Every structure is written in C-alpha cells, then in structure tokens.
Amino acid sequence: MPSLLDLPRDVRDDVLSYALRMKLDPPASPVEFSQASREFLSDIYLDNGWRCRFRFEHQAKFRTFVALQLVNWQLYDEVREVMRRQFTHPPDYDLDIMYLTDGSMWTTWTRLPFVAHHVNTLRITFRLFRCPGWLGATLRNSHTTLFGDFQNRPPSFLCIFYLLLHTFLTRGPFPASFRRYHGVLFPGMLIDKIVISIKRPTESGILPLEHLLSLEESRMFTRLSTYPPHVFFGPSVHSGNEGVVAHTLLVLYMVFGLRILTGLDYRYEELGRPFYERVGVFEIRSRGRTLKYFNLAEFATRIATSEPLEDSDLRDYARWVASTANMRRQVGLPVAPLPSRLRQLLMGESVNPDYFWQV
User: Fold this and answer.
1) Predicted local confidence at residue 334, as pLDDT
2) How many whole angstroms from its chain centre is CA 348?
3) Which of 5, 52, 59, 66 makes a 20 to 30 Å CA pair with 239?
4) Listed residue (102, 115, 132, 99) closest to 251, CA to CA
5) What is the pLDDT of residues 308-336, one digit of tens each?
6) What whole-number distance in Å separates Cα of residue 87 and Cα of residue 275?
7) pTM for the whole thing?
8) In this structure, are residues 266 and 308 in contact, taking their beta carbons and an 8 Å threshold?
9) What DSSP designation does 311 have?
10) Which are the contacts of 18, defined by CB distance < 8 A and separation ≥ 6?
C-alpha cells in the first residue's frame, strides 16, 4: 500500500505543511467530547461555595508536529525542515470552549501545530450547551447556574474564564502534563492577540425562564443594560428565543468582565496584571462583527481608582507599568508613552523611564 514517503518530496512537503496548519473540527456535543480521552478533570471551588469544572487534554495529543515526527527518522527531519520554513513567525492557536449550563468549561485545542512560548493569535470560540444529565448537578442553585448570582459579585462565568486564561498564559496549553520547554520550565505563553468569538446555542433548555426573571430584577443586569443597546448585540433579552437571550448575555458579560479585568481598578489590579504582561490586545467578536477591542498597551498607562492614591502606592504602580512595558518591548508587544505624572515619580529611580517607553 502506498505511503506518504512514496510521494515526491515537493508534494510531501505540501502535505506536511497543510497537516501542520490544518484546523480540527471541535466535538459536536458534550457527549462526543466525553467519549474522547479527556483524562484531566479539575474542580474549582469559588468563594460562594459553588463548584465548576475545567476539562482539557491531559496528553498533548493535538500537537501535530509530534505525531508526524514519530513516524520515522526521515519524516522527523523533513517535518523539522518544513517547520523552519513555514513558521518563521509565531504560530496561531485555535481553542474551542464548550460552556455548559452547570458552569463547566470543556476545552479542545483545534489548531496547535506545536507548543510555542510566543503565539501570534489565539482564537477562542465559545459554544453553549446544556449539561448532560449523567454529569449530575455540580453547582448549588441549579436554576441560576449559567451565569451565577449577580447581586454582590461578578458572574461565576467570569471567574472561571479568568482562571482558565490565567492557567494557559502561565503554564502553557497543556498545564496538566507539559512542564518543560526546550529542557527548562515552560515560561507560559505570550500572545499578541486574543480573539474571542461567541456562537449562538442551537439547542433548547439553555436558559430557564425563572433565571431570566431573577436576572432582570438584579442590580447587575440593570448595570449591564446601560451598556451599548441590545440591538447592537441582537434581539432584546425579552425575546422568547432563549438561545438568542443566552448568547446576548454571554456577549455582555464578556465585555463587562474584560472591562473590569483590564481597567486596573485598585480592587482588581492584581487580577488584570497577568494580561498586561502577556497579551497585546483582546478582541470580542459575534456574528462576524468586532464588538469590542481592548488595546492593553494604552490601558496600561491609565489607572482607574475611586479614590486618589498615595504617592508611594502610585510610585509602585509606576514601577510595575515601566517593567511591564520593558517586558512587552522585549517580546515585540506594543507599548504606549508613560503619562507625565508617572514619569515624574520615576525620575529619582535607578531606571530611566525613557528607556522603557521607546515606541
């Protein structure tokens, strides 16, 4: 039977190039996802007593270059040569996230040609599904588990997504098993751009009616309603199409959550810092349109506090902004000029603020 090695070398190189860049189809449903080998299951307990789940590949089975290189030594050398020619710039990754009504996030890497420290674009696709009955109830108050209780805290969805992104940024695409990178501890990922696309659910039962009623009465929903009008995102939440409702809410919460995490508010400053140190920009898309664009190079020079900071606190903040800018410059991420007030605070430091903020 003919094999890949029987093809002419130029044709074989084209096949290998396509295989390294191809995008896999995500699981069609949670049932299909569970039938594949997903060996790592992590339970995360939130401060309100709820529990959520991360599920992702335990083994790096979607690292295409590894599978190709294991065929034989000849193909091993050819794959490395193709990679040297094709990937002269950081690669693109694609991540599929199945968000279930019990608050779980199940992730699948649909494009991951090889494990890299520096990634050009990470495309994240959100799809909403009902939690399969065989999983059982994983959270309390099951009638409000899709986005959580909004009275006094952010939706649990935002906490879960933040933990997921933080895990991948700091530990790499396979946090359960991939510890080393060229013989040293994996330094995490630097990502030029994260594009988040949110798809409408296609099945019923995503958002129960009682959840909608309690949501519309909540203070969080009142605040969200002051954001761009619903016609910008789609039909009103009063629409009878619960798939449209769930999709609209998910888009709103994504915009709302990233605005909090990137706002450098004194209450959430520590949470947002990993994004500034490792991500260039965030883009939120829905139905083929860009809804929100977060340029972290510009945001890093702004500080949003409800009360004035002492000079000592502001100086610490200025040091962090300068060191973060230096880190971003070294890896090719954009930076923005330092505001004059922060520059003045750094004038007596051992570092020259002009060095950190050359554009």
Assistant:
1) 77
2) 38
3) 52
4) 99
5) 667 777 777 777 777 777 777 777 777 77
6) 25
7) 0.71
8) no
9) H
10) none
CB 130 within 8 A of CB 29: no
Beta strands in 146-214 (DSSP E): 180-181, 184-185, 190-198
Identify whether the C-beta of residue 15 lies closer than 8 Å to the C-beta of residue 7.
yes
Q: How many CB atoms lie within 10 A of CB 3?
A: 8
Tokens of 146: 């899709």
E strands within the chain?
A: 40-45, 51-56, 93-100, 105-111, 118-129, 180-181, 184-185, 190-198, 279-286, 289-295
Q: Which two tokens stand for residue 222?
A: 């009142």
Listed as ranges, residues in the chain with pLDDT below 70 are: 1-7, 9, 11, 13-14, 16-18, 35-76, 88, 101-103, 133-159, 174-187, 202-246, 248-249, 264-269, 300-309, 348-359
Residues 183, 184, 188, 190, CA torsion sign: negative
Please tell me the distance from the alpha carbon of residue 86 to that of residue 15, in angstroms, as a whole number: 12
Give counts: helices (H), strands (E), the chain: 14, 10
Cβ neighbours of residue 291 closer than 8 Å, sequence gap 6 or more = 232, 233, 251, 255, 284, 285
Give alpha helix (H) positions in 227-284.
230-233, 242-261, 269-278
Q: Using CA atoms, how far apart are residues 184 and 187, in angstroms rounded to an integer? A: 8
pLDDT tens-digit profile of 226-241?
443 333 333 344 444 5
